Amino acid sequence: MKTKVFIDGSAGTTGLRIVERMSGRADVELLTLPEEKRKDFDARVEMMNASDVTFLCLPDDAAKEIAAAAGETVRLIDASTAHRTAPGWQYGFPELSEEFREGIVSGNRVAVPGCHASGMVAILYPMVKAGILPPDYPVTIFSLTGYSGGGKKMIAEYETDGRPLTFEAPRAYGLNQNHKHLPEVTKVAGLAYPPCFTPVVSDYYAGMAVAAQFQGRLLRKTMTPEGLHAFFSEYYAGQELLSVAPFGAEAEEKGYLSGSLKEGWDGMELYITGNPDRLMVTAVFDNLGKGASGAAVQCFNLMTGMPETYGLSL
């Protein structure tokens, strides 16, 4: 029997990618609304409640509004920020632990992690859980992303003739230190305080590199880069969508890590670099893949009993 799927917000960047991934699947019956009904709330609610699984690819307020109208039998996968810290919602990052994975498999309300947040929690959660990183550690993170992470509006700004010259260089933002991904990172990773976080958008379409820096003297356990590499390799062993690059693999890129290195790929790869005094862990992935639609489809696969990587690009 096919799973009936409705994608609310199918015209957005994430929604379009999910539509592409779902359209050719033999296990899915895709429910759609005529164009004139696409923004009709009652029609959307009716279609959502006729589905087995609905993806919410909406602004936060719209996602909250329609989720409140969902029946108990429909399963929701929310790609917005709206429910990532909400009670009763599972956090859609199965690689973190068996508890996270089982929550997705059995849950009917799943929140897909934010793109920057995906890289951050992949690094921070295991270190806090293992007692390497104190919960009150003053975490500092930089994240380089392509402009598609800003959705249709930012894509249009970057791809329009006559754009400002400043768009040709990387631009830091979130300067007030209130980025919308920080609450989920703080909660999920088990931190006492939000990280100091600098996201940077650059003039390329997709892909990101999220880098966390650590002072070796402030860690609870003495770590070398080689030791930290061994730790992450063991922690994520056997995962199909999250791997650790061989130690020293950055040499293949002459010591550089490009934000676009994993564009078009739905997994995530960690690089461990630095020295015993100052260590760095960098998560490299596609903000439209493991950072958005790819992660949503991964959650869908787990929720419906399909192979975890079905329909994904690896």
Automatic annotation (TrEMBL):
<dbReference type="GO" id="GO:0005737">
    <property type="term" value="C:cytoplasm"/>
</dbReference>
<feature type="domain" description="Semialdehyde dehydrogenase NAD-binding">
    <location>
        <begin position="4"/>
        <end position="104"/>
    </location>
</feature>
<dbReference type="GO" id="GO:0006526">
    <property type="term" value="P:L-arginine biosynthetic process"/>
</dbReference>
<protein>
    <recommendedName>
        <fullName>N-acetyl-gamma-glutamyl-phosphate reductase</fullName>
        <ecNumber>1.2.1.38</ecNumber>
    </recommendedName>
</protein>
<comment type="pathway">
    <text>Amino-acid biosynthesis; L-arginine biosynthesis; N(2)-acetyl-L-ornithine from L-glutamate: step 3/4.</text>
</comment>
<dbReference type="InterPro" id="IPR058924">
    <property type="entry name" value="AGPR_dimerisation_dom"/>
</dbReference>
<dbReference type="InterPro" id="IPR050085">
    <property type="entry name" value="AGPR"/>
</dbReference>
<keyword id="KW-0521">NADP</keyword>
<dbReference type="InterPro" id="IPR036291">
    <property type="entry name" value="NAD(P)-bd_dom_sf"/>
</dbReference>
<keyword id="KW-0055">Arginine biosynthesis</keyword>
<keyword id="KW-0028">Amino-acid biosynthesis</keyword>
<dbReference type="InterPro" id="IPR000534">
    <property type="entry name" value="Semialdehyde_DH_NAD-bd"/>
</dbReference>
<comment type="function">
    <text>Catalyzes the NADPH-dependent reduction of N-acetyl-5-glutamyl phosphate to yield N-acetyl-L-glutamate 5-semialdehyde.</text>
</comment>
<dbReference type="GO" id="GO:0003942">
    <property type="term" value="F:N-acetyl-gamma-glutamyl-phosphate reductase activity"/>
</dbReference>
<comment type="similarity">
    <text>Belongs to the NAGSA dehydrogenase family. Type 2 subfamily.</text>
</comment>
<keyword id="KW-0560">Oxidoreductase</keyword>
<dbReference type="Pfam" id="PF01118">
    <property type="entry name" value="Semialdhyde_dh"/>
</dbReference>
<keyword id="KW-0963">Cytoplasm</keyword>
<dbReference type="GO" id="GO:0051287">
    <property type="term" value="F:NAD binding"/>
</dbReference>
<dbReference type="Pfam" id="PF22698">
    <property type="entry name" value="Semialdhyde_dhC_1"/>
</dbReference>
<feature type="active site">
    <location>
        <position position="115"/>
    </location>
</feature>
<dbReference type="InterPro" id="IPR010136">
    <property type="entry name" value="AGPR_type-2"/>
</dbReference>
